[in-house]
Amino acid sequence: MQTLAFFVLTVLAVGSAAVVVGPWVKNQVLCALALAFNLVSLAGFFFLLDAQFIAFLQVIVYAGAIMVLILFVLMLLNVQDERRLAAARPFQRWLGPAAAVAFALIVVAAVRSGGGALRYPQPSAGYGTVRALGLELFTRFFYPFEAISLLLVVAMIGAVLLAKRRL
Amino acid sequence: MAFGPQSVLAVSAVLFALGVLGVLLRRGAILILMSVEIMLNAANLAFVSFARQHDHAEGQIYVFFVITLAAAEAAVGLAIVIALFRLRGSTDVDELSLLKW
Amino acid sequence: MLRLIGLIPLLPVAGVVINGLFGRRLSRRAVGLVACAAVGAALALSIGAVVQLAALPEGERSFEVSLGSWLPLGSIDGREVGIDWGFALDPLSALLLLVVTGVGFLIHVYSVGYMAHEPDVARFFVYMNLFMAMMCTLVLASNLAVLFVGWEGVGLCSYLLIGFFYDRPFDERTGLSCADAGRKAFIVNRIGDLAFLIGMLYLLLEFGTLHIGELGRAIGAGHASEAFLTGAGLLLFFGACGKSAQIPLYVWLPDAMAGPTPVSALIHAATMVTAGVYMVCRMSALYSAAPEALAVVASVGALTALYAATMGLTATDIKKVLAYSTVSQLGYMFAAAGVGAYTAAMFHLMTHAFFKALLFLGAGSVIHALHGEQDIERMGGLRSKLPRTFWTFGTATLAIAGIFPLAGFFSKDEILWSAWSTGHRAVWGLLLLAAIVTAFYMTRLAWLVFCGEFRGSAATWGRVHESPASMTVPLALLALLSIGGGWIGIPKVLAAGADINVVHHWLAPAITPVGGAAVHGAAQGGSAGSAGRGEHGAGDEFGAGTGFDEEGEFGSGGASGTGGERGAAGEFGAEGAHAVGAEHGAAEELALIALALVAAVAGILLALAIYRRAGVAQRLARQSGPVYTLLRNLYWVDELYDAAIVQPFYRISRISGAFDRWVVDGLVNAAGVGAEITGHVVKLFQTGFVRNYALMFLLGAVAILYYLATV
């Protein structure tokens, strides 16, 4: 059952990613929607891996807030359909995909040869719950937590400044 | 469960590669940003997989932070795109070629 | 005042500094005054020092002073070696010092008048004073290194002064400019100087010292082989050939006439060119111990004497005739030294300074009067307009020809007698021939310039005027010296047996005769052996106790000298032993004197006969065809040197110049070009295309990942 879910989710995730990335869809808003779909499939993955809190987080923050932001901007700027990469750039058009493929292959090969486990072990009780995460977050990772809140403030200010019509 | 860490990591690698392809081949600035999001998500998947494998919440904490960072980065990046749009009237990155020798 | 001899070279330096720094702002008179005063002060100091020296007893006339250490050289073979700024006054250097400063002073005074119309007078006197300083350094040097400083210094000043009119052309036949002539002089001198330096270094390595007195003692003590001494002597002599214009390095002196006439008078007649002769006499200890070297010196000297005299027969530039004459007379001096008659050589050096300087200054007077004309074919009959110049020039002509009782007669005669009596008959023959030729061409010169009819333009004739007093007074003084200068060297045979040869007595203690013991410096007891009449080279090892009882004996070496007071010359002490031998020599000597006199007079009369009537000379020239051409073109020696040495050298220089430009510079340029090409290639990465940059990132990441994965 879970294996089936896994395969389905894989197809969905890779497929929607392909839509975002590939040359088939020129309309940028449609690509954004495909991305949202991809994000949700990943949330599914997280569920599958017993990381419930993270899954929710993904849906709410990533697929909810970030995607909305992106769509906002797309609509605000009224972007046109994308024009394709010019034919006169063979270097980019062939070497890029080749490098990306090489990248993936290396990683997979590394993983397989690293003697990674083939099955997941049973998780402990309370794994992936809010409680477990909260405990870790506010004890061991307290400092990064505070730092990242600072980062968020900075990002906010930066975004406002950058986007202003006049400083 | 019949699938294992290796499969999940393979998916993560493929997703990451797709994201990279998007960065390299896409022309609109926002689409590039979206491809970057894909990459980040692939990394998140890998993190979660490892966390599950070792039964430790640490990996999930990292995902937590990555998501937060992705949000901040998206905000700032989009602000830049807006500024760029105001300058150029389009989000086409190929028009930003002043660094050409 | 003896203690101040170190000051003598420095006084002209004061003139150099003052005129060098302020000369352009001073008036012409002031510049001349400063220069003459500097030399005059040096002269006065010299006279004082020499007088003091003369007051010392005969065997101890030597004074040394050191102005400090110059090159402490550590040790060679365990001996401490070093070179000082040492100056020494002894009879030999005293003689030349007086000649140099005295004649130098007169010429400086003359120059004030001669250079009256030239711009850049300050530069002229700076160079002249510098020359005086360097020459005095050379004369007073107590070691070979300081002597070499002076040697080089006078060479430098010669170059500067020859090329004084640096932008004027000089010789139409060869196309030389005055600057070229200066360069030629310097370069030819340099060749000789190299040999000199090598000889010096050999001596330093062998003896550990360059101090002339110490060298003399070391050589006298037999520390070096004869072969070594011959080699060193020949090297030093080659340097002297350069400086004193002997074969094969004489070619610069005729072209040195490009300089102003006072320069020719001072440097190329009286002082610098005599430095070679002086050096040989100073190193008499070395040469007397190396008879083969002496033989070479004598041969070269005699050959040069005749050779140069022949070139004077056909020259038409008044100064060039005198230049050849100088080369010839220097040959006389070297021939004298070469047969062992060092005092005769120095004596002739002194008298030659007088009459040659006079001849040059007289020529200068003529040139000045004719506003720059130097070609004797455009002169003539100047006697009426330039009486003072004529009479003084005439006196000098007779002196150089060797007419009794002028100065040249005594000195030339002594040389001839020394050559004959030491058995060097060939040398004597050459010198006698040269004497005839000398008398001939000097008379020719005098006649063509002063007598007969004027062959120039009428306009020039109208402007001819006698020179001012500043020029004619030195002429007169030199004329007096030319007349009476020889009377301090009257040989015994002409003085009815009385020994009044002052020059002899004066110089004897400072000279090491051939085969005799070394005497230099007061430290040696027992001065023996004079360099003078009737001495022989009897090749026994010196320093051995027994003297020889032959004709012209010499005393034994220092070992047997008791308290050193055998008088200045051994021969006088044992004279009675061979009165018979002396008389036999006297008859011979008188005969030879008569012969020489007849030869000189014959030369004069022959010249008068030829040049008195118009056309005779030209007919003779045509009839002697090839001989005349040979002489007129100076045996084509300059052309030979040019083809054999100068042109190949230029070719090599051009090749290495091309090498420098193409290979060496090419490498450097190639580095630059390489950097440029690399830049052109690398810039292709800067596409301005953002996604290309991203691709670069990716490629790098893949590479690193691959590395990490496979390691």
What is the strand and helix layout of this fold?
The complex is a heterotrimer of chains A (167), B (101) and C (711).
Chain A: H1 2-21, H2 28-48, H3 52-77, H4 90-113, H5 130-139, H6 142-163
Helix pairs in contact in A: 1-2, 2-3
Chain B: H1 5-25, H2 29-54, H3 58-88
Chain C: H1 10-22, H2 28-55, E1 63-76, E2 79-89, H3 91-114, H4 121-140, H5 144-162, H6 178-207, H7 212-220, H8 226-243, H9 252-255, H10 261-270, H11 275-282, H12 284-288, H13 291-312, H14 318-338, H15 342-369, H16 387-401, H17 407-421, H18 425-450, H19 458-463, H20 469-484, H21 502-507, H22 570-573, H23 579-612, H24 616-623, H25 625-632, H26 637-682, H27 690-710
Antiparallel strand pairs in C: 1-2
Structure description:
The complex is a heterotrimer of chains A (about 170), B (about 100) and C (about 700). Chain A has helices at about 1-20, 30-50, 50-75, 90-115, 130-140, 140-165. With about 170 residues, chain A is mostly helical. In chain A, helix 1 packs antiparallel against helix 2 and helix 2 (about 30-50) runs antiparallel to helix 3 (about 50-75). Chain B has one domain (about 5-95): Helix Hairpins. With about 700 residues, chain C is mainly alpha-helical. Chain C is globular and about 120 Å long. Chains in contact: A-B, A-C, B-C.
Task: Describe the structure in brief.
Chain A has helices at 2-21, 28-48, 52-77, 90-113, 130-139, 142-163. In chain A, α1 packs antiparallel against α2 and α2 runs antiparallel to α3 (52-77). By secondary structure, chain A is mainly alpha-helical.
Order of helices and strands of chain B: HHH
Provide the residue-averaged pLDDT of chain C. 82
Helix content of chain B: over 70%
Q: Major sheet of chain B: size, sense and barrel closure?
A: none
CATH topology-level fold name of chain B: Helix Hairpins
Distance linking N and C termini of chain B: 56 Å
| Chains forming the largest contact | A-B, 88 and 71 residues
Radius of gyration of chain C: 31 Å
Compute the number of helices of chain B.
3
Helix-strand topology string of chain C: HHEEHHHHHHHHHHHHHHHHHHHHHHHHH
Q: Give the CATH class of chain B.
A: Mainly Alpha
- The tally of strands of chain B reads 0
User: How many E strands of chain C?
Assistant: 2
Q: Outline of chain C, from the CA principal axes?
A: globular
Strand order of the largest sheet of chain C: 1-2
Task: Provide the CATH architecture of chain B.
Answer: Orthogonal Bundle
Low-pLDDT ranges of chain C: 517-581
* Low confidence ranges of chain B: none
Overall average residue pLDDT of chain B:
89
